[in-house]
Design a protein that fits this description.
This protein is an alpha+beta fold and about 625 residues long. Among the domains are: about 110 residues, Jelly Rolls, CATH 2.60.120; about 110 residues, Maltose phosphorylase, domain 3 (Sandwich), CATH 2.60.420. The protein is built from 13 helices and 26 strands. Strands 1, 2, 3, 5, 6, 7 and 8 form a seven-stranded antiparallel sheet that branches. A seven-stranded antiparallel sheet has the order 9-19-20-21-26-23-24.
Amino acid sequence: GNAQFTGPSSISFDFGKNIAGLVSVTVGDSSSPDASLSLTYTESSTYISSQSCDGTRGPQFDQPISLPVGKGPNIYSVEREHERGGFRYLTVTNNGNTNIDVTRVAVYFTAAPQQDLRQYWGYFHCNDELLNKIWYAGAYTNQLCTIDPNHGVATIQKFKSAKRDDTLTWFNNVTIANGGTVLVDGAKRDREIWPGDMVVQIPSVFVSTFDMGSVQNGLTALLDLQHTDQQFLDMFPYAGYPFNEFNDMSATYHMHTLIAVAYYFKYTGDLAYVKAKWSHFTRGMAWAIRNVDSTGMMNVMGNNNVGPNARDWGRAGMGGHNVEANAIFYYALNQGIILAKLVGDSASVSAWAPVASKVKEVTNSLLWDSNVGLYKDNENSKIYPQDGNVWAIKSGLTTSDAQNAGISAALKARWGKYGAPAPESVFNAGTPAYIAPFVGSLELEAHIISGNPQNAIDLMRLQWGFMLNDPRMTGSTFIEGYREDGDLSWPQYNSQGILSHSHGWSTGPTASLSFGVAGIQLDSDQGKTWTIRPQLGDLTEVFAGFKTNQGSFNVEIEANSNGDITTLRISTPPGTLGSLHLPNVRGQLASGWGDGKRSVRSRGAVRRSESDGPGIFLASLPGGDWHLVLDN
């Protein structure tokens, strides 16, 4: 309906979910040619205000956008430079003494500019509706974090020396990459390309929207910013333009860029791109190897975010023989070896393999504490970090399944009311730790790799359930992080209002539910080879699937209350080859979809387990449709 603003007055709109775009206001009449409305935005209900928006930079909040509406009945729209990247709440205010009739308020949605917003390539459904919402909230978060590259954030200053109650001008009008779409870290903030975020985002984007074009554009922008100056020779930036101009450097984020290249290839099979960027990759790996000291481990120069390459995701204590940095290094080396073989660079394979072997040997010798059952941050630390321990499992730096299981149990023992804390986030002794969904996303992977899917499922319900359902959140996207006591703050930020409530590094559950719980795993690029290894935990029903350039992957799985699988149907692309792992199941695999939702009956080839003991374990399984037939 219509609303008449008579003198100073305001109306706040709740869109019901986090959105992004350009606001337009349809005005019927106004009493003065000087009539003007102001617009304020916020992702969180905490910062609904007629005087300021939530923040995008610095300790201050953002200024309202003034919208002159005094030229008679018309549609008045904000300029494109003031599109807002993330907001659930919009407040329209008349600060003057004029009368203004407003007949309509609309938002032109600008996120995911080249996607069909309803055409997901992947899907997930299970018998736990919270987990279903978490999967789709992760997918939607990354859609909000997909923007027109010409509308990145304008970083006018890194810090603002002004009173906290001042407001800052803000603009989203900086070109941060080529192309028509790009994946960034956050919808509202930073609207920049961050390689650490991409390590979580790329798998989750793949299983949902498969928007690899946005990934490639962001990745190319990072590679093109590789340093040629002597001080930072061959380093990739901590973040893309314009943040890179501050020359903050990070050893870990440098290696995240290498990993992002490997992920992009795995999900697209775009070997031509890898070959075209191979000199960037080898130079980047050379930088990492130059930082290996006489111990055989990477030695990160600097400490506590101060020094030549000690920046990270917001943790304290980065420096020296850090376990997180060395585990990431080990993972990057092994991903690089895979790529080097594919591009025919045997010299790099020969050079990198012994470095990786030595990193694993020395890290376990120097940093593993068998009494605690965790890796310590470095040889002189009393901190047993979340990030280093989850990366140790993810990277294969650990030495046994028993070690993985022990780390998984030790990490779970530290959970609190709101999720998994990161003790390495404490800068001042005696202060609370923070919960970093970036690291938590990787912890989900670690639990699944360790054979503890229930830990991963429980953490999703606990931590991501809080992020989805707390009334201060958007109910649709995932926040950047918060304190372990539930306070919405972050260690480097001196204003809670600048927290991003739509942050790509928090979207790990989307990939973990598809790859880990549903168990559709790609063993080589595009799923030319694959493994189906469901790990349902306490779930009794899981339907999931996604597409690659090879074709579609789909599974339907049902289990009884004891966790025993009673129904399995799988569909993989013809011409591919895979394996199946179903422990504690007695039966055989028959060709065809069976009596599932596709209602295709076929009883051709039959495959029985290729190993002794309870379970079905098959290798060299041709792509196609198969279903489980239980023994009587």
